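Below is a filled-in request sheet from our internal design queue. Each sheet records the structural input a requester submitted and the sequence that came back. We keep these sheets so that new team members can see what a complete request looks like end to end.

REQUESTER: design group, bay 2
PRIORITY: normal
MODE: inverse folding
CHAIN LENGTH: 256
BACKBONE (tokenized):
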């Protein structure tokens, strides 16, 4: 959708990346020859080891085999609800910085989704646990959550648009890849299965592919140092994704 203007000069194909990821590859074609590969392929390859560790984390393996302590899952859902408030604000900043009107609309819609749609998912869990919204949003952010959201907001406000997109991309892409991987295994716990199904859904896939397409389009016009800056943010926030699940598994608190 975002690249409709250049559709006649571009072909979209899919490649299997590390960790089984499906990478949307936008290739510029001239006389049937591929002139450049997608930047997102390079990004994914840069976090192959990180993604492998994410899939092996006991929080995620516990979702599929049903052994995850529900208290750890509840801790995660509460912290995720707090995270999404700042994530949504960061997306709104990206929208304001976007050089294309279509990208402005997309990121603002995603900001709304982060607040409205994701909140509906969380609230379905909170009802199961008899937790009120007041209880949830009165919960302090765990240290890792505060660190992650502070990093995202700093990049969104202070750095160029292209760096912000790269920093926010792992939250989209890794969740989609995790959802697909966990869906293959399922879960005996209906709460965990509901969470897995959300991120393995075709609807979420379309959202992720939109951001991947924007990322590739942006990267085409950048210098190599600028692309390196994008990759540094992408790797950093991918690490934060592992840290976030680890935070929940440990039910991290403030040591002081």
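RETURNED SEQUENCE:
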């Amino acid at each position: 959708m975002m690249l409709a203007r250049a559709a006649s000069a571009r072909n979209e194909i899919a490649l299997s990346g590390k960790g089984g990821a499906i990478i949307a590859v936008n290739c510029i074609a001239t006389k049937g020859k591929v002139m450049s590969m997608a930047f997102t392929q390079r990004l994914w390859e840069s976090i192959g080891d990180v993604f492998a560790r994410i899939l092996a984390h006991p929080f995620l393996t516990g979702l599929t085999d049903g052994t995850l302590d529900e208290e750890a899952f509840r801790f995660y859902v509460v912290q995720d609800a707090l995270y999404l408030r700042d994530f949504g604000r960061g997306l709104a900043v990206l929208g304001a910085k976007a050089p294309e009107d279509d990208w402005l609309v997309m990121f603002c819609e995603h900001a709304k989704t982060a607040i409205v749609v994701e909140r509906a998912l969380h609230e379905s869990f909170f009802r199961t646990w008899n937790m009120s919204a007041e209880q949830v949003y009165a919960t302090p952010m765990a240290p890792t959550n505060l660190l992650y959201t502070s990093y995202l907001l700093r990049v969104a406000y202070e750095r160029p648009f292209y760096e912000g997109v790269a920093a926010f991309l792992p939250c989209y892409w890794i969740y989609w890849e995790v959802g697909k991987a966990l869906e293959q295994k399922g879960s005996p716990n209906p709460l965990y299965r509901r969470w897995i199904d959300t991120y393995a859904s075709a609807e979420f896939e379309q959202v992720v592919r939109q951001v991947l397409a924007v990322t590739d389009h942006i990267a085409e016009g950048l210098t190599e140092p600028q692309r390196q800056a994008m990759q540094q943010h992408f790797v950093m926030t991918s690490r934060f994704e592992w840290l976030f699940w680890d935070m929940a598994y440990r039910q991290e608190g403030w040591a002081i």
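SHEET NOTES:
- Residues 1-35 have pLDDT under 50 and may be disordered.
- The longest strand covers residues 22-30.
FILED BY: M.R.
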